[in-house]
Amino acid sequence: MYKFPKDFLWGSASAAYQIEGAYNVDGKGMSNWDHFVRIPGKTFKGTTGDIAVDHYHRYKEDIALMAEMGLKTYRFSIAWTRIFPTGNGEINQKGIEFYQNIIDECLKYGIEPMVTIFHWDLPQALVDQYNGFESEKIVDDFVNYAKTLFKVFGKSVKYWITLNEQNIFTSLGWLTAQHPPGKFDDQKMFYQVNHHAFLAHAKAVLAYREMGFDGMIGASFAYTPSYALDCNPINAMSKMNYDDLKNYWWLDVYAYGEYPIAAMKYLEKKGVAPVVSQEDKEILKKAAKEINFMGVNYYQSCVCEYNPLDGVTPYGTMNTTGKKGSAQVTGVPGLYKNPQNQYLKTTDWDWTIDPLGLTYLCREITSRYRLPIIISENGLGAFDKLESENKIHDIYRIEYIREHLKALSQAIDEGCEVLAYCTWSFTDLLSWLNGYQKRYGFVYVDRNEETGSLSRYKKDSFYWYKEVIETNGEK
Length: 475
Ligand code: BGP
Prior knowledge:
Blueprint: E1 9-13, H1 16-19, H2 32-36, H3 55-69, E2 73-77, H4 80-83, H5 93-108, E3 112-118, H6 124-130, H7 137-153, E4 159-164, H8 166-174, H9 187-210, E5 216-222, E6 226-228, H10 233-256, H11 261-270, H12 278-288, E7 294-297, E8 302-304, E9 331-332, E10 336-337, H13 355-369, E11 373-377, H14 395-413, E12 418-424, E13 443-445, E14 456-458, H15 460-470
Parallel strand pairs: 1-2, 1-12, 2-3, 3-4, 4-5, 5-7, 6-8, 7-11, 11-12
Antiparallel strand pairs: 9-10, 13-14
Helix pairs in contact: 3-5, 7-9, 8-9, 9-12, 10-12, 13-14
């Protein structure tokens, strides 16, 4: 049914904070998330990743399940605080050992490790010292951390993702106050923080090359492709505004080392543009030539419509409960707003389900950037039900992934170079804003306090994806 290249990397992804637990074990330092979840009211029903799904102690069992499924790659992130408990200084050998074990375990089964250097859990010590990404000091500490990983793991790991979804952790951290540091509408800082993150990414990429490695390195971006509401030119302009500010602002810097012109003008007029030196510009450009792929996390597309100056703002209620229809329309006054797409269904969390959007974005990346693509996340968050005999009949997930794979194979057929597809996620895990009830995995994790003890059960989708991999997508 689908066509995929011979060495296609069938994968699945996770992130340290969302699966590991063991938040204060073996010398690990406190992260900004360990800190944030302890502030009352910040997370869904006060959930934390203190234990998460205890992957720290169960990684062998989890990776054995990956091997049983036949995964070709496993994307996971390293917790900075396990390697450098306070962000820099002395290396914590126990942390190195843990990730060495994960990597060895993957390699033992022929699973290619794909490592995310930063998936949002920042050493709290760096926040206490200089407010983390708000200061340019973060760049040196990040590069030092990345270089340590390259030095220790660089021979066994060939795929590196510098930053996961820079667009999301900065938006939720400095605009909507839903992630640490929980700041609201601080636009000036938002753009400055992003600039520091770009520099951190760029310098890490350059360091990787300077150290002589020839593996694959890039960033992963949460890409929400957009459609104009209709052929009214004012809505087409709204789409252009949206893309410049919400997509190309990141993609262009990774791929070209340059900010989009119209968006920069707009921010300058508003007085919120980042301070960018000549030297920074050169670094960004140099690093852009060194990335090997664009990492894309794809969950949904959006519609763009004209939004008047007194229109909706970016700060409408989000659906973090799974109660369909509770999300509000948001946008940027004067530029665009994002109404629901009447042609598409949504998940229980109001995320649009749009397989063709995946073909669309692959085509766009290919023609705009001429870069290979790694789909580093794609999946369906749902309320799964544990039935008798520990079965989970998640046909809706199978259908979701099947349709997205069809769309991906279409993109490949139309000339896009796609190297890997990682589902989010392998086991169920913590959803940052939605607690544990929003499940994504192929493997169910039983959280029932009496019976659960975090037992793992294979869902129907597990067996289905196993066959997809076995047949290289022809099933
Ligand atoms: C991405 C993140 C992941 C993961 C996923 C699902 O933005 O990179 O870490 O959480 O989204 O999102 P959610 O858990 O909000 O449903």
